């Protein structure tokens, strides 16, 4: 995308045309939550205005229309990520989806799901492998699973730059490895994981792969069938779609093995006072009244992004990301986390300002109408390993222009002297 095109797209997002502190807003916090274009807002409002209803059960006209919209949304989202429609289960978000997998494996390990779930069963001595750079959403559920099953949680350590390679991961894969869970794109370092190599290693020991695709699906073309992962998770709100909805992808045979972690209405076949049989996937992972308007709006987001082109969005962000890394790092006293030419990176940059806390950095930038994120970005172990408690993260998307990066760089170059940290 050219800057002119990014500016044109920016006009699709009503929230971005606001002034903040009397100046045009440079929103560089897309990694936390993306904004929504008018087309997505309209799709949700249109649904709520004309078709809103609970899906699947009702025999009335609105229920039929809503069910049609809901299942069509599933097809659109499935196509967007290279999956079949029945491999897509709606969840509340990526966190929820990852919990569904971990808790489902815990249930399988207790014998739930019978013989069908046996391939997912974990016990003492089995190993779950993650990385030290994971978001807490892809770490804590695995800690809980290890506690519940007696399995051991192991992790790929990061180096001093916060990155890792397949050579760091390979020696940790053993014949006891049952699960390898990792972020496709790190929300702190931007590192793009070597998915194909990991899938191959996992296959060589019969482990399943779980991909945290939160920071990849919104920003680059992703095809789960081509990647060959067993499970994947992402959130609507990070991809120009709504909050309160996310997706669990599971390869059909894996979804069939996974017992439901949440039970209740809408996911059952036959209920007696003694016992219950569950529906087939993906419905058995969708207990309770579903987020229908959100599903419709998420499909609208997929259509919007596809029309622009995920290749173009990726190229645009990677160029901005490379610029941020190089130019931020060149400023005295600024260190970009994950600055490592030997690994591929996405379009975000988290950085440390010597002598200034990330919260002060982000307030200083806010005064210049630049919105960034400050904190540990739900990755405390990574920050601890790097000897800091927090960093500041700027993250781009399709509307981000070089002018916004210029503004960021200019503001960042003044921070240390403002706070007296250069003396
Ligand atoms: N994983 C990664 C890499 C993320 O960036 C996020 C969101 N910060 C999550 C998981 C969790 O997503 P959500 O909060 O939408 O459930």
Automatic annotation (TrEMBL):
NCBIfam families: sufS
Taxonomy, superkingdom: Bacteria
InterPro entries, alphabetized: Aminotrans_V_dom, Aminotrans_V_PyrdxlP_BS, Cys_dSase_SufS, PyrdxlP-dep_Trfase, PyrdxlP-dep_Trfase_major, PyrdxlP-dep_Trfase_small
rRNA-binding among keywords: no
Alphabetical list of PROSITE patterns matching this protein: AA_TRANSFER_CLASS_5 (PS00595)
Keywords: Pyridoxal phosphate, Transferase
Gene Ontology MF terms in the entry: cysteine desulfurase activity; pyridoxal phosphate binding
Reaction(s) the record says it catalyses: (sulfur carrier)-H + L-cysteine = (sulfur carrier)-SH + L-alanine
UniProt keyword annotation of Manganese present: no
Protein name: Cysteine desulfurase
Function comment: Catalyzes the removal of elemental sulfur and selenium atoms from L-cysteine, L-cystine, L-selenocysteine, and L-selenocystine to produce L-alanine.
BP term (GO), one: cysteine metabolic process
Family per record: Belongs to the class-V pyridoxal-phosphate-dependent aminotransferase family. Csd subfamily.
Cofactor: pyridoxal 5'-phosphate
Higher taxonomy: Bacteria, Bacillati, Actinomycetota, Actinomycetes, Micrococcales
């Amino acid at each position: 995308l050219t800057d002119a095109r990014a500016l044109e797209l920016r006009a699709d997002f009503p929230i971005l045309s606001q002034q903040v502190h009397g100046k045009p807003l440079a929103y560089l916090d897309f990694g936390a939550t993306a904004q929504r274009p008018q087309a997505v807002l309209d799709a949700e409002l249109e649904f709520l205005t004309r078709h809103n209803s609970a899906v699947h059960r009702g025999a009335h006209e609105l229920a039929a229309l809503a069910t049609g919209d809901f299942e069509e949304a599933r097809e659109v989202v499935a196509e967007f990520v290279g999956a079949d429609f029945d491999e897509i289960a709606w969840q509340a978000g990526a966190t929820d989806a990852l919990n569904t997998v971990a808790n489902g494996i815990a249930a399988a390990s207790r014998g739930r799901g019978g013989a069908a779930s046996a391939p997912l069963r974990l016990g003492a001595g089995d190993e779950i492998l993650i990385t030290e750079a994971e978001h807490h959403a892809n770490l804590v559920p695995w800690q809980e699973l290890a506690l519940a099953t007696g399995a051991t949680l192991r992790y790929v350590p990061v180096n001093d730059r916060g990155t890792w390679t397949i050579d760091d991961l390979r020696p940790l894969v053993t014949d006891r490895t049952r699960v390898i869970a990792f972020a496709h794109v790190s929300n702190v370092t931007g590192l793009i994981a070597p998915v194909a190599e990991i899938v191959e290693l996992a296959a060589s020991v019969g482990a399943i792969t779980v991909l945290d695709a939160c920071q990849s699906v919104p920003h680059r073309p992703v095809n789960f069938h081509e990647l060959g992962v067993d499970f994947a998770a992402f959130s609507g709100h990070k991809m120009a779609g709504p909050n309160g909805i996310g997706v669990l992808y599971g390869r059909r045979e894996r979804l069939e093995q996974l017992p439901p972690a949440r039970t209740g209405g809408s996911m059952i076949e036959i209920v007696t006072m003694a016992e219950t049989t569950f529906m087939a996937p993906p419905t058995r992972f969708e207990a309770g009244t579903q987020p229908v308007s959100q599903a419709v709006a998420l499909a609208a987001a997929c259509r919007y992004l596809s029309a622009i082109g995920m290749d173009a969005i990726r190229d645009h962000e990677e160029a901005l990301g490379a610029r941020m890394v190089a130019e931020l790092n060149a400023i005295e006293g600024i260190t970009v986390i994950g600055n490592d030419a030997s690994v591929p990176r996405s379009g975000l940059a988290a950085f440390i300002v010597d002598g200034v806390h990330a919260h002060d950095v982000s307030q200083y930038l806010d005064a210049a109408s630049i919105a960034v994120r400050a904190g540990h970005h739900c990755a405390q172990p990574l920050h601890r390993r790097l000897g800091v408690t927090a960093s500041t993260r700027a993250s781009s998307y399709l509307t981000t222009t070089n002018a916004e990066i210029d503004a960021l760089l200019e503001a960042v170059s003044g921070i240390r002297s403002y706070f007296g940290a250069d003396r």
